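step: validate -> pass
step: tokenize input -> pass
step: predict -> running
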Amino acid sequence: MDMSLQQTATDEGVAAAQRTKLAGRRYRRQQSAFDILILFLVVQVASIVFGIISPDIFAFNSLAHIQNALHTIPIEVGIPALGVGVLMIAGEFDLSVGNNFIFSSIVMAQLAANGMNVWLAALIGLLIGTGIGLLNGLITLWLKIPSFITTLGTSFFWLAATFFVHGASSQPFSPDPVFAALTAGSLGVIPATFLWWVVLALVFWGLLERNRIGNHIFAVGGNKQAAVATGVRVERTKLLAFGLAGATAALGGILAAAYIGNIAPSGGDALPLEAIAACVIGGLALAGGRGTILGIVLGSALIFWIRDVLLLLAAPGFYINAPIGILIIGAAAIYELLRARRT
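step: predict -> pass
step: emit ->
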């Protein structure tokens, strides 16, 4: 009887320690999101104040500019970055999201142009994108090679596939009014693309923070050996993350095609690195195991904000990427410094 009581006490102690450790991890994730939120609010307030002072040279506060930003951020980097971020938390990368973004949307547009129902064509495009992500995961896990190398190789493959399927010219896309309204229209002054982004971000937040799958994703990215020891199916969890990265890349391409009205084969070249940059700026660790959905969202917005401010100030185009690089290095350094102090 005494042995049974001791075993029960031991089990309760282990469970309590695990709960405490999990609570600590959640606190650190929330604190990381708080850091990027403060930075985001500071730059937004500074931009709004400057826009009020100098509205003629800096139209930051105009309704047209705000609507354009809400339209553009989700399809330019925001939606694909959600999937890329979850995959990074799981400890992997996907450099093929840009060409996935293009290939999936071009196939959709071609099917629709050939008479297929646009909703079915969009579903096929989404399935193709998800399949590309899963294929990346299978190659990485079965051959046991770094995902950076796998997806670099598949990125070139899907670029070639795009030119094979369509050629180098842009693919027009003119969906029916209902599809266009739901993917590229507006609800009042709020663009549909922004609503898609918000809903998807909430879904991903629930997956990571309120679901056992989220705990598994953090576990496989943070400490693979410990995850295996606790019964987490590492390969299945990582495969799910690869699939999500592929699906969000395809969804971003579909929404972009509906909003812009055409798809350029070279339109996704910068997307992989911009998505990773948004995640790093948002506080995700390159080694995996750390990050928040709020950080990914705000990091995506900051990437757009830098480019947007420079364009509003009429800066030469070749200067636009330099501040983004500086922000990436600065954000990574600041997060590491804050993490070291909190530890």
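step: describe -> The chain has one domain: 26-342.
step: cleanup -> pass
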